[in-house]
Design goal:
about 120 residues, alpha+beta, HIT family, subunit A, five-stranded antiparallel β-sheet, 3 helices, binds adenosine monophosphate, binds zinc ion
């Protein structure tokens, strides 16, 4: 059994509100949503972060980003922020590559806390 949280969600070992389930991708609602739409999209295969994913599997990375459009469409939004936190200092807490899809309310100029 893996101790990776998102591998365990993909495997169905932990509960999640599933938004998308395809051959290579899994998407579910963030447990601590920052906006009305806050969905996490992950590759089913484990990569530590988005850059490792992109270096190892560029086509899958494209699929992952394209899936954000499907998630947005499903939630009826056409404006959203896509975030890949990469590394602990950048706020990454789960070391399985994932894309945040955040929207459904005005998000402000950037949402980035660079202080
Ligand atoms: P990050 O900080 O970029 O690594 O994002 C990890 C995200 O996973 C955070 O926004 C958490 O709220 C979310 N998260 C943590 N545990 C769960 C869970 N069991 N189900 C859904 N989302 C989760
Ligand atoms: Zn994993």
């Amino acid at each position: 059994m893996t101790d990776c949280l998102f591998c365990r969600i993909v495997a169905g070992e932990l509960p999640a509100t599933v938004v998308l389930d395809t051959e290579h991708l899994f998407a579910f609602r963030d447990i601590s949503p920052q906006a009305p739409t806050h969905v996490i999209i992950v590759p089913k295969a484990h990569y530590a972060n988005a850059v490792e994913l992109a270096q190892a599997a560029p086509a899958l990375t494209g699929e992952l980003i394209a899936a954000a459009g499907d998630v947005a469409k499903q939630d009826g939004i056409d404006s959203y922020r896509l975030v890949f936190n990469t590394g602990a200092d950048a706020g990454q807490t789960v070391f399985h590559a994932h894309l945040h899809v955040i929207g459904g309310k005005p998000l402000g100029p950037s949402g980035l806390d660079l202080h």
